[in-house]
Amino acid sequence: MRIDIVTIFPAFFDVLDLSLIGKARARGILDLRVHDLRSHTHDRHRTVDDTPYGGGAGMVMKPEPWGEALDGILGEDAVLIVPSPAGELFTQATARELASEQHVVFACGRYEGIDQRVIDHYAARGRVRLMSLGDYVLNGGEVAAMAMIEAVTRLVPGVVGNPSSLVEESHEDGLLEYPIYTKPPVWRDRSVPEILLGGNHGAIAQWRREQSIERTRQYRPDLLS
Ligand code: 6GU
């Protein structure tokens, strides 16, 4: 999978050299490229923002640097993701959809966002999705893009060593994950639930299912319909 990221803060993405994503890059499973939007400015101050038409607080990202940057990156098969609190909700289902793409491009806006004509221009020529992580506001798209990249790339075959660790986790079956335990069997007077020590795999599976449902009822009743 190829992933391109356009940002005015390329250093945000230095951490993609670490951990499983870093290993997948080194092994050639992920071709991940970070681009500095300011290298597509042509004025002395490398300006990427300007005041909003119609007034209002904050600044808007100018369309020209985005056009030049994205023209050089987007191909026929690419999907353009624009992180935005005004977008559709990014879920595990979205992560699964994007994990089967050949080429995903993230356009990370700062300030109040990117001039709408950039989104409209590329939506008329290809696939564009405005994606939000949830109902809160971040200072820019970088941290959101990072979260989406981790959620997507861990589903790409070969990125996570043991694929079975991908199936029994929160949100894959519409429920939150059950509680988990490891050794020692007693810690600070707290015992591991007896059923997990018995080796009755049918009973364990049933207990875990019940725990998942109870947790979901407690923390995320909106997921139970
Ligand atoms: Cl994708 N971007 C920003 N700036 N804020 C957010 C978000 C995205 N998702 C939730 N809050």
Describe this structure in words.
The chain is an alpha/beta fold and 225 residues long. It has six helices and nine strands; from the N terminus they run βαβββαβαβαβαββα. The strands form three sheets. The protein has a five-stranded parallel beta sheet with strand order 2-1-6-5-7. The protein has a two-stranded antiparallel sheet with strand order 3-4. It has a two-stranded antiparallel ribbon with strand order 8-9. The radius of gyration is 22 Å and the shape is elongated. The site of 6-chloroguanine has 13 residues, from strand 5, strand 7 and helix 5. Homodimer. It is found in: Cytoplasm. Keywords: Cytoplasm, Methyltransferase, S-adenosyl-L-methionine, Transferase, tRNA processing. It catalyses: guanosine(37) in tRNA + S-adenosyl-L-methionine = N(1)-methylguanosine(37) in tRNA + S-adenosyl-L-homocysteine + H(+).
The span between the termini is 35 Å
Radius of gyration: 22 Å
Q: How much helix is in the residues?
A: 25-40%
For the secondary structure, the number of strands is 9
Question: What spatial order of strands do you see in the largest sheet?
Answer: 2-1-6-5-7
Give structural attributes:
225 residues, alpha/beta, single chain, binds 6-chloroguanine, 5-stranded parallel sheet, two-stranded antiparallel ribbon
Task: Indicate the topology.
Elements: E1 2-7, H1 19-26, E2 31-36, E3 49-50, E4 60-61, H2 63-71, E5 78-89, H3 92-99, E6 103-107, H4 116-123, E7 127-132, H5 141-153, E8 186-187, E9 190-191, H6 201-219
Helix pairs in contact: 3-5
The chain binds 6-chloroguanine.
